[in-house]
Amino acid sequence: AHLLQFCNNFKDPGIQHYGNGNLFSDIRDEMDDIFCSLPAPKCSKDGAKINMSVFYNAAGGCFYGKCKVHLMNGTTKLIKDIKPGDRIAPYGGMIRFVVKTICQNQKANMVIVSIK
């Protein structure tokens, strides 16, 4: 998107300033339709229903807490249990901090976090 300087989705704040014309809006809207038609992620353990609208929020979190991730030590862990110091496979990126968002009724009030 940056290379071609066009806004292809609503989530990335870095590309929202590229174009406000019909072409740009059409591309973004088409990508939104594709995103909204994707099936919801499958739960790792329980069979609870997930509505994709939970993830359709530019200010929302990136991961559902009950998804599993692989760690560099060969184990797996639920996203909700990730803590600073964990290393995520396959590249070994170390978790520096975790922001957890509690959602009620599939909505969350977001806060601004600053590091001092």
UniProtKB/TrEMBL annotation:
InterPro entries listed in its UniProt record: Hint_dom_sf, Vwaint_dom
Pfam families linked to this entry: Vwaint (PF14624)
Protein name: VWA-Hint protein Vwaint domain-containing protein
VWA-Hint protein Vwaint domain: residues covered: 1-33
Lineage, highest ranks first: Eukaryota, Metazoa, Spiralia, Gnathifera, Rotifera
